[in-house]
Amino acid sequence: MTSLIFTVATDIYRIYSEEKDKNYCPQHLPQSALILFQRFKKAYESKNIKELKDCISSDFRGDIYGKNQADLIKFMTYNFQFLKYGFSPHLIIEVFNICSSSDSEFSTVINMKANLQFFGITTPVNWDRGKLLCEAKPEGKYSYWRITKIMKFKE
How far apart are CA 115 and CA 139, in angstroms? Predict the structure, then answer.
């Protein structure tokens, strides 16, 4: 019985690790966008509002979770507070199409899927999901990339 439990746990960990690696290193993304999405994913999954806010431009606009940065952060703070100890969101960002990419801006159609995790194990419970148009640009003295727009994708 112990051997079976160990085998199942090992298989779950292997599948999770392969999924995590696949989502962290998509080869077709520009380095700046990849780093931004990794920062966003890390902040989202750790429910770190300060880091999440740092991924969002002060000029943010959108039609999900609020129209500006303050609305978006307020919405995320409110939702993260409902997650009890041991629960966290697990985010997957799938890139469908890169619309534009340069040193001064980036836009892409993405699918964001978030499921709930319980002590690191991803459950089938959907937390959030949707196909979105995402835009980003470098800001400030050090050209730190931030998300400037997230809109529902309309086909």
Answer: 31
Which runs of consecutive H residues, i.e. helices, occur in the chain?
A: 2-24, 31-45, 49-55, 69-80
pLDDT band for position 23 (cuts 50, 70, 90): very low
Cα 118–chain centre separation: 18
Distance CA 124, CA 104 (A): 38
Question: pLDDT digit string (tens) for 79-110?
Answer: 888 888 888 888 888 888 888 888 899 999 99
Two structure tokens written together for 109: 């159609």
Rg for the chain, CA atoms, rounded:
17
Q: Is 0.85 surpassed by the pTM of this model?
A: no
Single out the residue of 100, 104, 102, 93 nearest to residue 132, CA to CA: 93
Range of the domain at 128: 2-152
Count: domains in the chain? 1
> What 3-state DSSP class applies to 29?
coil
